[in-house]
Recover the amino acids of this structure.
């Protein structure tokens, strides 16, 4: 974990935008696979390193230091990053639903716990709505990726 954070911090000030974006995506996937709490100090350091790189890259390109091809590639990279974050978030929502269902199934049936069961059922519905919204966003982003890829790579 610490190694992933250190690598991200080292890459945060790189100016090789394309190569670094790819490396950062790989580190982000490794980091998310560890399923750590978002308030953990290493998680915060990792997010700061990622954000520093993205802010610097956005600033660079916003000043007109790019051509059409690199701009499209940068936009494509950002969309792919958003799509990956949505995929991870959707998976986390599915895991939350499973956890809630397990808790509901493990309630002591001899004691009236209908209010707890109702709360769990409502929570599951809310998470399912969140999944639906995120899935719709993911589909939109994936269609944008296809369109952008075809304009970048040609028909």
């Amino acid at each position: 974990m610490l190694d992933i954070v250190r690598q991200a911090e080292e890459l945060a000030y790189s100016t090789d935008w394309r190569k670094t974006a790819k490396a950062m995506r790989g580190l982000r996937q490794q980091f998310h696979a560890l399923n750590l709490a978002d308030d953990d100090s290493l998680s915060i350091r990792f997010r700061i390193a990622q954000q520093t790189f993205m802010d610097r890259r956005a600033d660079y390109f916003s000043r007109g230091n790019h051509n059409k091809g690199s701009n499209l590639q940068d936009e494509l990279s950002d969309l792919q990053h958003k799509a990956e974050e949505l995929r991870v978030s959707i998976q986390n929502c599915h895991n939350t639903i499973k956890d809630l269902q397990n808790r509901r199934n493990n309630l002591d049936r001899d004691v009236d716990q209908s209010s707890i069961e109702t709360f769990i059922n409502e929570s599951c519905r809310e998470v399912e709505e969140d999944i639906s919204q995120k899935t719709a966003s993911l589909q939109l982003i994936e269609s944008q990726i296809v369109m952008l890829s075809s304009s970048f790579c040609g028909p």
In short: Residues 104 and 117 are 6 Å apart (CA to CA).
